Amino acid sequence: MPVVYIVVPCYNEQEVLPKTNKRLLDKLVSLIDSGQADEKSRILYVDDGSSDTTWELITRFHNESPLVSGLKLARNAGHQNALLAGLMAARESADCAISLDADLQDDVEVLGEFIKQYMQGCEVVYGVRKKRATDTFFKRFTAESFYKIMNHLGIDIVFNHADYRLMGKRALDALHEYREVNIFLRGIVPMIGFKSGTVYYERHERAAGVSKYPLKKMLSFALEGITSFSVRPLKIISNLGIVISLLSVLGLLYALVSYFAGVAVPGWTAIVASIWLLGGIQLLCIGVVGGYIGKIYSEVKNRPRYIIEAYLDKNDSSIPYIKN
Ligand code: UDP
Ligand code: MG
Q1: Considering just the CA atoms, what is the radius of gyration of the chain in Å?
Q2: Number of the ligand 1 atom closest to the C-alpha atom of 11
Q3: What is the pTM of this model?
Q4: How many structural domains are present in the chain?
Q5: 102 CB within 6 A, ligand 1
Q6: CATH number of the domain that 179 lies in?
Q7: pLDDT averaged over consecutive 10-residue blocks of the chain (324 residues)?
Q8: Is there an atom of ligand 1 within 6 Å of 103 CB?
Q9: Do 186 and 225 touch, CB atoms closer than 8 A?
Q10: Helices 185-192 and 79-93: crossing angle, nearest 10°?
């Protein structure tokens, strides 16, 4: 039986956590009782620098049940880093780790299915949502476009798979070797390789509280994903440069012809227009290049991706799980 760590990143989730904890505990207990998971399995909440009572709640759950562990980050490091921190902590004691959101959007009922596929030899199991009926049109449209753009840019990500996934110890060890600061797990995990499986699930509505991913965060997340894995935007820029140069040769020919035909007027409009156009395109291109340079900058600094403030886990003190 595998030791399963269920890793749950939490950022200001005090409204939903009591509900989540009950659901997950019930599920974990039934997995243990039915012999699908070892007694040393844990629910590991990662408090991503919350400013509400999230950590107090986690501490309370931990005191109430030996099956609950908690990891507190010193400040808000972002969803991906919180997830990574949890996975790396799980790597110490678990055979496999399953990550899911704190808001119960990821269907808890299919947890057993993940473990089953792991037992059948899958080192990575992706949770893929069946349809997006509970999402607003806007969220669905932006999210699905994101996957499509990513695939067009040659980035290997699993369609409609978020961060609901199981990773075995070997995959976690491999993930540990990826030292990049701008971490985008959906892109990195397929890069690791190993045999993988898929579990389909219904995505529910957030059980309580509000989304911690406002549009601004979503956009920067998408951009992060693209620039972390693809240099194709840089190529697009060069191609754009070539096209514009060709066009300007045509423009020059036109200007020469009209000059010799004697119909050239002081072309104020054309000049001003082209200055703006070119200026705009140049700024855009510099911006994209700057984005990559910024990335190099933060990778070169090689700062820690998260700082751990506290870790509560009873696998250290070996308190036995009591069957009820
Ligand atoms: N989250 C986090 N740090 C952040 C933002 C979000 O750990 O800076 C967690 C959040 O608590 C939740 C998960 O990431 O468990 C997904 O966030 P949310 O449900 O708000 O995103 P949505 O489902 O709306 O895209
Ligand atoms: Mg959510």
Answers
A1: 25
A2: 11
A3: 0.75
A4: 2
A5: yes
A6: 3.90.550.10
A7: 94 93 94 92 95 94 92 91 93 93 91 94 92 75 83 79 92 90 85 89 83 80 79 78 79 78 70 74 81 79 81 64 39
A8: yes
A9: yes
A10: 40
